[in-house]
Amino acid sequence: MTIESLPGSSGYLDSVPGQKLSYFSNPFVLGLTVIAGLGGLLFGYDTGVISGALLYIKDDFEAVSESSLLQESIVSMALVGAIIGAAAGGWINDAYGRKKATLSADVVFTIGSVVMAAAPDPYVLIAGRLLVGLGVGVASVTAPVYIAEASPTEIRGALVSTNVLMITGGQFLSYLINLAFTELPGTWRWMLGVSGVPAVIQFFFMLFLPESPRWCYMKHNKSEAISVLSKIYDPLRLEYEIDQLSAALEEERQGTNVIGYLDVFKSKEIRLAFLAGAGLQAFQQFTGINTVMYYSPTIVQMAGFSSNQLALLLSLIIAAMNAAGTVVGIYLIDHVGRRKLALTSLSGVIVSLLIISVSFFLQSSGSLQSFYGWFAVLGLALYIAFFSPGMGPVPWTVNSEIYPEAYRGVCGGMSATVNWVSNLIVAQSFLSLAEAVGTGATFSILAGIAVIAFVFVMEFVPETKGLSFEEVEKIWKEKAWGSGHDGESLLRQNSEP
Ligand code: BGC
């Protein structure tokens, strides 16, 4: 898949001299992506494994089995850690670079895994979950930015989405382990402890990987930046890429030190970019993906299937579909573009949520119970089929590419924090909402939110497929200051749905 075959690619790519790259054509970039993506694997594994591990933790610690507060704390503390980790991680990325951010996440992560595996009581376990969450939070902002900054424009979406494949792959793996380890005493220590292994592997390989070329350039380390870029581009294109980079950053870095959180709100362009990025992250969560990922066994049981085994098996199938759908997203994101992919995904999500909702309403009315149970399961499968290629990868990809260099870490981190806070809210409220207003009504609410998300994407998210970082900056200037700015034609060209 070379960029020449892509419809509607921008002027930038048309004018780039030298070789255009395809997904598999540069082992260095792909290798860097996979190593950085181990952060995604940790993210997926650790958010997925806890539901299964909790069953055994309850066996070992009586206090946990007697207290739902302790159970909830064990589950949610990782999310709390991720909220803090994402916010701090954004700043670490800008101040110390992507490489040090990754290494520090690995250290915290490994310590957290050891603490969990060795925990003598539930409170130490909760502290371990907090540490692991911190690592996951830092990784959730660092991996996409590090990958995007090393990516050739024409395959940037696919490479950043590969990190999302590692997330969904990690979730699948954790469900598999949850099923495989049934009823072995002490297993939870292994289940939680093994997640330190990818962190150690990542730490080791990261030592040999370079810092992001864009961050180096920004920090006046031009020679290192050029040496990294020369591993990616042929000589003809290398020269062009360096010229582009220096022209763009020369202007931007004048007097720029590290950006603070509040600086984000001072300029109109950055506010607009942040609105688009953070909005996508919030809608990713509020359209309910993690009600499905965390509670699919429960939802399957609510739909009338009482067997634990069947419920676990169906949720494993859902996780497999989610990972397979992400592969489809990797292929589509640089072909059809971010906007079209998100809009199509949301349309399917709306229909699927309505199917689930209607089946729960009809099922509770009493007739044809098992028929409507299967109908709900069909809705769940459709939901994943539509969500996974679009609303899964698009928010992470867009957030890795819409901010100017100096803001990329801080804004990406704040947006990831929005994602984790929204995740926590949805995870904490789904069951009680279903109890209060009914499962059918809960899924109707999610469908309503998905409709708002559709309008939001139409209105606020520009197309960034095939655009260089510099071109994306021009789009925000144009949006903020109206026509006449040099982003005008790009905006027009890229805003078709
Ligand atoms: C989301 C996670 C979610 C996963 C599901 C990711 O893009 O950020 O919260 O669990 O997709 O596959």
TrEMBL record:
UniProt-listed InterPro entries: MFS_dom, MFS_sugar_transport-like, MFS_trans_sf, Myo-inositol_Transporter, Sugar/inositol_transpt, Sugar_transporter_CS
Main localization (coarse): membrane
Location in or out of the cell: Membrane
Extent of the signal sequence: none
Membrane topology reported for the UniProt record: Multi-pass membrane protein
Domain Major facilitator superfamily (MFS) profile, residue spans: 32-465
Parts of the chain that traverse the membrane: 28-57, 69-91, 103-120, 126-147, 159-181, 187-209, 272-295, 310-334, 341-362, 374-398, 410-431, 437-458
Molecular function terms from GO: transmembrane transporter activity
CC terms in the record's Gene Ontology section: membrane
SUPFAM superfamilies: MFS general substrate transporter
Keyword Membrane tagged: yes
Gene Ontology biological process terms in this record: myo-inositol transport; polyol transmembrane transport
Transmembrane keyword on record: yes
Keywords: Membrane, Sugar transport, Transmembrane, Transmembrane helix, Transport
PANTHER family, A to Z: PROTON MYO-INOSITOL COTRANSPORTER
Family: Belongs to the major facilitator superfamily. Sugar transporter (TC 2.A.1.1) family.
Protein name: Major facilitator, sugar transporter-like
